[in-house]
UniProtKB/TrEMBL annotation, chains A, B:
Keywords on record: DNA-binding, Phosphoprotein, Transcription, Transcription regulation, Two-component regulatory system
Stored PROSITE patterns: OMPR_PHOB (PS51755), RESPONSE_REGULATORY (PS50110)
One GO CC annotation: protein-DNA complex
Protein name per UniProt: Two-component system, OmpR family, response regulator
DNA sequence: GCAGTTCTGTTACATCTTGTTACCTAGACG
DNA sequence: CGTCTAGGTAACAAGATGTAACAGAACTGC
């Protein structure tokens, strides 16, 4: 079972990054999107398991977007909105929403409801009555989250620093999805204070992780560079519950 | 589509009949139940599409019932409860609920949420997403899109830059079809801003790719020039699904 | 506390990528 | 053969990325 891929649609950058961060921490892949065109592009480009859709998108309207999507897409949609009156919720369900969450929301509750919808959509087993994923495998490597240890394909244990481990987790939560330095930094700095310096910390961190998990760090096969964009874990990841 | 059959589990007779009435009015079959034994009897006796489960059932506890049901049943469950605090909701989702509705509730909203869960539960779990072609072969060369690597007929891996790889992909997608510089540029610049300068970037790029995949770059056999028109990949291409 | 070790961000410089420019060659055509 | 034009490509420049070296922070064992 691969990691669920969610689309986070919100025109507020802060809200989007906040939600993305929480989702990443909970083991989801979260892709940002701002317009209907971007949503459709993502749907065509690859598997999307669920869309978190803001109702008020500047001049756009989330419900109308959802209604149009529903004409040819059955992807699960959860509305996230500051409009919490019953008739507004009703409008959401009428255009085919799977759930409707009022802002401000409890992040843990959001995650729980995302899991519930995903479970019902039969794309991922609900983690509710199962253990949280504890083991990730990729390209022969194994990351055991419980023991917090990494083993190479040959079985040797590789010591990663805290920061390197955090980076690996972020990547494992988003296999094959290019992440910008900003996204990575945001996911690493859970207490993101927004003071994002334009330093090269992420580059150096990536280089250090490469030095430990790449066969030939000068020619990285796993942790690839997306020039002008960021980095991507260029392999599939399988997960197992403990 | 037959009429959905719901189980209404509540120990309060008034609440039960009220919910049942609303459900009937909305075209559902609503069966009352009060205990776990009754629930299981119904599940075994016939099809049940969804359970509306009160959290506080006298001396029984709805969440525990749900947790036990989940061991062998995947029937959708919506909790209906006067307990609306976040941690109480979380507890509901943790035992596998599909939704959690606080009392008192708006009957129309209840119906809408029932419909949403039913829709999601009854949808076909197909939604197979098509894999993209992963391997291209041409004139002995192999381009593995998954690994993003190119191998010469002799088996050597050839390192292409991102831009060169993109060009190769465009050509592989259009074998034997001459492409103008404008068409190539448009295909390469996904975020085509329309500002197409008449520069020689494509010519130089073609030259660089030739330098890597042509036996004799001065006498190109694969990436031919169509004088006055553009360039063409002068070979057949076979593709394989992963 | 304290000294040694490890971790992590910054900096500086090397390297890689890619578009532009300038100049050259190959064909076309008379 | 001379001229003209499209195309080839070396050289350059700008920008992005890789990484060694350094220093302060954090941590460890005592």
């Amino acid at each position: 079972m691969t990691i669920p891929r969610l689309l986070v649609v919100d025109d507020d950058e802060d809200m989007r990054s906040m939600m993305t961060r929480f989702l990443h921490r909970s083991g989801f892949a979260a892709l940002p999107a701002g317009t209907e065109a971007e949503i459709r592009a993502h749907l065509e480009a690859g598997r999307i398991d669920l869309i978190l859709l803001d109702v008020m998108l500047g001049d756009e309207n989330g419900t109308e977007i959802c209604a149009r999507l529903r004409r040819d897409q059955d992807v699960p949609v959860i509305f996230v909105s500051a409009l919490s009156a019953d008739h507004q919720r009703m409008a959401g369900y009428e255009v085919g929403a799977d759930d409707y969450i009022a802002k401000p929301f409890n992040p843990d509750l959001l995650i729980a409801r995302v899991r519930a919808v995903l479970h019902r959509a039969q794309r991922t087993p609900s983690l509710a009555y199962r253990r949280r994923t504890e083991t990730y495998r990729f390209a022969g490597w194994v990351y055991d989250a419980r023991r917090d240890e990494v083993r190479s394909p040959e079985g040797f244990e590789v010591a990663l620093s805290r920061r390197e481990t955090a980076l690996l987790k972020v990547l494992l939560a988003n296999p094959r999805i290019p992440l910008t330095r900003e996204e990575i930094a945001a996911a690493l700095d859970v207490a993101g204070d927004g003071t994002d310096q334009p330093g090269r910390a992420i580059d150096v961190l990536v280089g250090r992780l490469r030095g430990k998990i790449e066969r030939n760090p000068r020619d990285p096969q796993l942790l690839r560079t997306e020039r002008g964009l960021g980095y991507v874990l260029a392999t599939d990841v399988t997960t197992e519950e403990a």
